[in-house]
Amino acid sequence: MPLAVNDFTWEETEKEVFITVPLKGVKSNKVDILSTEEYLKVSYPPYLFECFLRAPVDDVAGTAQVGNGAVFFRLPKKEPGFWSKLHSDIHGDKEAMKQKREEAIKTSQEREQKKEQEKTEKKRADSKYALQETMKFEEAERKRIEDEKEFERKKATEELEKWKEEQRRLAEEEKKKLLEEKLAAEAAREQKRMEEMEQRKKTKKRGKKNDIFEEAAEGVPKREVGKIEIKFTPRVFPTPVRESQTPQEEEWLRKQVEARRVQDVDEELTEEERNPMFLRDKGNSFFQSGNYLAAVNAFSHAIRLAPKMHSLYSNRAACHLKLKNFIKCVEDCSRALALLDPPVPQNADSRCKAYVRRGTAYCELELYVEGLKDYEDALKIDPNNEALRADADRIRQVIQGSSES
């Protein structure tokens, strides 16, 4: 049973009421205060101060301060005037006091719920505003990146067009030079033939008898003696016969020959533009200089000419990796690996690079399990590569950390 506090003091003016409740040595952090328009309660066990006010007050505008061993209330009156006494007439009526107390508790709970709801609404509004600002920033950043990409794309296209124009000019000059050389050679041959015919006429006049074959061939230029050199391609597979993968190696050679066979292309393209090897070297040059978009364009043009050359897909995948086009990198690596079949020692290095690039792209996409599998496949090809092994261990640690959390 709490001890009622009766040694409180109070004062009033026409507009305000001031109440002082002593805390009797209790620490301020253990004080519980409830205040409504017609009810006050200060609980600090084992003491309890309870007051049913004579008239309503503005408890929202009122204040309650805890300090110096007491609780100080300043409560504005809703209607000006003097009360002459603090307690309501229901003081002592248990049923009325109980009802008033329950109403005060209900009012206090509703007020707290309202405050909590307002706080939640404010938090939601702040979150919505922050989200809108973030979306605006991301949209601006996305537009900036797209503008930069468009600028780089135009720049790469202009450079490619300039390069094409330069190649056309050089081709025209080369054609002109070859034509001049051909005409000069034909003129020289014609001059030589005329001189030989003149010489034969002079010989006849001297009375010398020509050979029958010479007479039959008179006026016809002799065919020059030529020589044809035949070179045999040495066998490039040093595998011992007992460990030979001859069927796979022959299939791989056949695929390489087929891969270098150029598809039908536009007649207007220059000789260099029809050469996938030249375009591959040009793409590698762009890649080395950091112009990855131009490199992608060069490799893509080469792929249209020779869609079965694995190196074109692998090199374009490296460009996509630099440009953070990770999904396209995965696609190109997968295509390269499909073309690198059957697996033989001669394409081991290319398969290793394709696995590493695809594994890196998977990790950037947070597909760590797929990335680890590709790194492990690369390690099967190059088991002594310590850098690959260290990268695979780091990916394995990331996967383990994710599973533990």
From TrEMBL:
The keyword Acetylation does not apply. GO terms for biological process: nervous system development. GO terms for cellular component: dynein axonemal particle; neuron projection; nucleus. The keyword Repeat applies. Gene3D superfamilies: 2.60.40.790, Tetratricopeptide repeat domain. TPR repeats lie at residues 276-309, 352-385. Pfam families: CS (PF04969). Residues 3-87 form the CS domain. SUPFAM superfamilies: HSP20-like chaperones, TPR-like. InterPro entries: CS_dom, CS_DYX1C1, Dynein_assembly_factor_4, HSP20-like_chaperone, TPR-like_helical_dom_sf, TPR_rpt. Residues 94-127 have a biased composition (Basic and acidic residues). It is found in: Cell projection, Neuron projection; Dynein axonemal particle; Nucleus. Keywords: Cell projection, Cytoplasm, Neurogenesis, Nucleus, Repeat, TPR repeat. Residues 94-130 are annotated as: Disordered. This is Dynein axonemal assembly factor 4. It comes from Sinanodonta woodiana (Chinese pond mussel). The lineage of its organism: Eukaryota, Metazoa, Spiralia, Lophotrochozoa, Mollusca.
